[in-house]
Amino acid sequence: MMTFRKPLSHKHLSGYMRVRSRRGNWLAVVLLRVSRRDLFFCLTALLIFCLGSVFYQLNGGAPKAVLDVGYYLGRFADGHGPLAPRALPFPSQVVYNRVGKCGSRTIVLLLRMLVDRHRFTLISSDIHNKTRLTKREQENLIRNISTTPQPFIYTRHVHFLNFSRFRMDEPVHINIIRDPINRFLSNYFFRRFGDWRGKENHVVRTPGMKDDERYLDINTCILESYPECSNPRLFYIIPYFCGQLPQCREPGVWALETAKQNVLDHYLLVGVLEELEDVLLLLERLLPHFFSDVLNIYKSPEYRKLGNMTGTVHKQTPNLEALQVLYERMEYEYKFYNFVKAQFHLTKRKIGLRSGPKPSRPYSSVFQRKDLQEEKDLQEELEEEDTEDSLEWTEHT
What is the pTM of this model? Predict the structure, then answer.
């Protein structure tokens, strides 16, 4: 049986509308107040997030104080238990396949002074005379490197390792090279007489070297084409960037071009030892979570006491004829050195780093004029390519 609700009278209807109106006004006022407050908090949070993001990008990661607070908050969250995982910087994996006699001991010494300050893992291999590896050795080494606690820097005298070949995460690669003749002379006399760390250092390094070889005149070695002063022994720097293939150890265009391409594709920075302070400044800018404050440490008295002990002793300069022969034998090494130096200067300009006065070259004879012209031409070519890339990027934005 259907029932009908009695219609509201005018009096009841008007009272009902007044109550509803009061409730609506009260609700509108509450919503308005909540909306303004929420809007203020949202805008404030957005502003803080934007400023934090900018600071994070400029600083290369979260501030150390913030990381420390988060680290210890995780420890005391429940009063006991293991520490919470740390927030890792990016990049957190760095490989420095250091080239012999190119300032590597200086960099490793600085890293040992930085490791506790910045809380990263440093593995510095003591293997110095095994730069070429079999495929199995490469795979094992790459896996060992990849399982190192992050963030880490792994450093060893070893030719370039291609992680992607073994389907492993690609780390960031860094390195330093120097003028090829300077590198050769430093190595030649270091093998014979060591450095200032001890009188018997050279005996430990080359215990089987006979006196007639140890005291062999550098000019005789070069001009009479002793194996140590001829190719392929002089083809030394390029294989560190070309890689592990046998062709990388054969002086020629293929190894040179492969090394150049690897620098462009895999290396964050390849510096030149002649401009070491600029190298350290760039490392501070590009990898602050590893190298922050490294230049101040390098200039400190504490470092100088240790760093001055690594200089090679009894070095001699070959005569002009020997230098000419040496330079011609190292043609590809100088082409690569000029390429790296030009790239390094380009990176400095992109970062906004103004170079200080360049040190004079140790060998300013006539045979280097062609080398200087090639370096100048390459620098102009790189600047043109960089300008074209910038214009193309502008057109697409």
Answer: 0.71
